[in-house]
């Protein structure tokens, strides 16, 4: 009996020792993990443009995203080194291969990207916006829409249709009514076109009229067709004149850019946005190139992320430019982390919340952008 109890107690002691050793190893591992974060030099990818990322001579020199990250790293006592990338996609691809610990910059948080990586909570809420010129309004600005390529093509098509109708009327009437429709093709077709125009406009001078059955059928069909086409044409011209007579050359919404030309940075979300709204896209390598095209009248507007446009306008002194209040494709900017690496994301999110609660985030943003915006 004594031997059996001894064996039971011995097993309990053995299990207790295993539990103690397992707990000790777990705690020790967690302590080592924390110590590793404090002693490891983190590889930080940097991607983006002003005002979120500034680089000078190949080194990171500041910006909204950089200042927020450096405040967090200082508070967490993290050592790090920067790797600069000329595009967010290149940085995120390297992050996906676990060659980076974090990517810092104005990174749009999208559903597609969340399938391949993790994001912090947004430190800035962005959107797409439109910048256009504030030109002096003139008579030419009022009538300029009437000389658009589409309107000229529409008039050319209309004249071609008139020529066809005039020819059909001349062929139907030339033998029965040679006094009205001469046998000479040029004069006869011109008379037919005149009759088509009079019929379409419902003027009804009565100087020319078909007398044959086929001529009257052609004229009757043309009356019905012209009522529909003339109504559509007049409505289009009226709307164009109404928009052009508003007394301003600025663009306030994306609808006004339809069939017009806008510049944007190639590969940005604004490129697809413009194509979806039937805007002619001029792709450029940088935002400075886009504004150069706007100032030289090569495009009607620049469409890009609102904070970058705000920063550019803040430093613009030579030209009168207008930033529309309309916002599109609202999205948050955050920091990116490898998909299966949770070492940093909680601590970064907590630090971002504390940073915002202390109004430090607002202070940094106000420094780089217009405070009213």
UniProtKB/TrEMBL annotation:
Q: Name one GO cellular component term.
A: membrane
Q: Where is the Ionotropic glutamate receptor C-terminal domain?
A: 41-371
Q: Name one GO molecular function term.
A: ligand-gated monoatomic ion channel activity
Its transmembrane ranges are: 151-172, 184-205, 217-238
Query: Highest taxon of the source?
Result: Bacteria
Checking Pfam families in the record gives: Lig_chan (PF00060), SBP_bac_3 (PF00497)
Cell location = Membrane
The record's keywords, sorted A to Z, are: Glycoprotein, Ion channel, Ion transport, Membrane, Receptor, Transmembrane, Transmembrane helix, Transport
Annotated SMART domains: PBPb (SM00062), PBPe (SM00079)
Give the protein name, as stated in the record.
Polar amino acid transport system substrate-binding protein
Natural source organism: Psychroflexus halocasei
């Amino acid at each position: 009996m004594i031997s059996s109890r001894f064996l039971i107690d011995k097993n309990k002691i053995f299990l207790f020792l295993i539990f103690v050793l397992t707990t000790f190893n777990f705690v020790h591992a967690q302590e080592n993990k924390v110590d590793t974060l404090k002693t490891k030099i983190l590889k930080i990818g940097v991607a983006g443009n002003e005002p979120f990322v500034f680089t000078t001579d190949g080194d990171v020199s500041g910006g909204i995203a950089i200042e927020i990250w450096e405040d967090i790293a200082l508070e967490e006592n993290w050592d790090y080194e920067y790797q600069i990338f000329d595009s967010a996609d290149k940085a995120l691809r390297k992050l996906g291969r676990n060659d980076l610990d974090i990517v810092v910059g104005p990174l749009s948080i999208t559903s597609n990207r969340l399938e391949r990586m993790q994001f912090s909570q947004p430190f800035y809420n962005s959107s797409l916006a439109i910048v256009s010129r504030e030109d002096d309004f003139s008579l030419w600005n009022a009538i300029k829409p009437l000389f658009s390529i589409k309107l000229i093509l529409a008039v050319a098509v209309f004249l071609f249709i008139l020529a066809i109708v005039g020819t059909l009327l001349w062929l139907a009437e030339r033998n029965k009514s040679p006094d009205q429709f001469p046998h000479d093709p040029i004069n006869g077709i011109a008379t037919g076109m005149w009759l088509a125009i009079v019929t379409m406009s419902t003027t009804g001078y009565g100087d020319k009229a078909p007398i044959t059955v086929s001529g009257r059928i052609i004229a009757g069909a043309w009356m019905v067709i012209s009522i529909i086409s003339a109504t559509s044409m007049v409505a289009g011209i009226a709307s164009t004149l109404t928009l052009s007579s508003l007394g301003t050359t600025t663009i306030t919404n994306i609808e006004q850019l339809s069939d017009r030309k806008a510049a944007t940075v190639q590969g940005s979300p604004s490129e697809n946005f413009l194509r979806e709204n039937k805007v002619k896209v001029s792709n450029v390598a940088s935002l400075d190139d886009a504004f150069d095209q706007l100032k030289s009248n090569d495009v009607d507007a620049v469409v890009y992320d609102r904070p970058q446009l705000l920063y550019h306008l803040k430093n613009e002194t030579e030209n009168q430019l207008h930033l529309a209040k309309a916002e599109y494709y609202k999205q948050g900017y955050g920091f990116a982390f490898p998909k299966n690496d949770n070492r940093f994301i909680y601590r970064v999110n907590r630090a971002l919340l504390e940073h915002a609660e202390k109004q430090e985030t607002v202070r940094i943003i106000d420094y780089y952008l217009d405070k009213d915006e």
